[in-house]
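Record now logged for everyone:
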Amino acid sequence: MLAPSPAVVETESSGLDPTDWRPLRAQGHAMLDAMFDHLEGLAAGPVWRPAPDSVRARFTAPLPIEPTDLAHAHATFVEAVLPYGGGNAHPGFMGWVQGGGTGVGMLAEMLAAGLNANLGGRDHMPIAVERQVLAWTRQMFGFPETASGLFLTGASQANFLAVVIARTRALGLRARDRGVLACMSRLTAYASTDVHGCVGQAMDLAGLGTDQLRRIPVDANHRIDLVALRAAIAADRALGFTPFLLVGTAGTVDVGAIDPLPALADIAAEQGLFFHVDAALGGLAVLSPELAPRVAGLERADSLAFDFHKWGQVPYDAGFLLVRDAELHHRTFAAEAAYLTRAEQGMAGGDWWPCDYGPDLSRGFRALKTWFTLKTYGATALGEVAAQTCRLARRLADRIAAEPELTLRAPVALNIVCFNYGDGRHDAGIVADLQTAGRVAPSTTLIDGRPVIRAAIVNHRTAPRDIDALIDGVLHLGRAATRGAPNP
């Protein structure tokens, strides 16, 4: 068959694609270079700066009806968005537990967007990539090869799914069909008072109620009190409740404390409880020979939640849930629908559809940026990043101990350091001033009801000079505030 002559070849645009790709290609290269320039120059700029009203006003415009040139839209991004981000990519960011991302992850995200894959299911290679990362994750945490897992937005969603899975284990499928009340069981769950707030929210969303989460006191190291835990379980059984879930934490959000995971696993086994671990902060310590002993016991969990976008430095978002009992996991979420009918061959084939393991049918290709990160850097390098952030935290604690005006307020278990300047009354102002100045950016939290300065060191770009800048800044601002304060 003869090829058509050039005169009759179709050249009109199809849908939203251009007729001539050259201008888009050139603009795309310019946009990519601008982001590389941004990442390369991070340390030279401020961590954070407040956006002026004139900038905010640019995003109160009405719906665009006519097209705008891409270069113009990109210019708006460069001028009004890029300089006013959340700051977590900057080496001086220590405000919250957020990873810094990498250039490799950024490129992988671009590839994923170009492919535009929906990872709900069906037979295509992006599913195989997610399964590869699942296999690597099982290996990281010492889970059996039969364990299941799923990418999610973050550990908050993963913790929610874990509660629902534990509910299915306790009540069976009738809870899905008839509802929790019809099951006539008063389920109770247990976690420390320092557990992340999303666990209580998960109890709410699962229809169990936040009051059914027993918040157990912690010891001086902010670890769950095992004696109090056993007493609470026994008291609930005596009152006719049904204990069903025990949640341990590997890195509490306020201070980074790690619950005694092996002991919790023993109690869960003795009491017939589903043992879940929220390892959002500290889970990837398993990649570091230096840190892994601190999280021993993770391998005994029935499920665990963690984030690749924290210590794994994968760009947001990349949360993960790992579940020991794949059949229970599948039974909790799988649902039949005509439009999801499976086939022996063709696009509707494939023996693993992620939509059977969570609530999302439409799912982005989070696995690709995680695969690229692990493949490009390797587990050893990522483990060393985690270990280095903990060494920096120890350096910060040592500097605090050396300064009479500063007081450490909690043991440093991992990479979070909480302290006061003086009696703490100026700390909120010090933190706000540091954030506005833009060199370093800690945050605040409450320890035993008392406000403290909190430094969470997660970013692979953070260096000793940033730790020194934090201490120097706190001392400078604290002394200035003390001099200007009225006499009590």
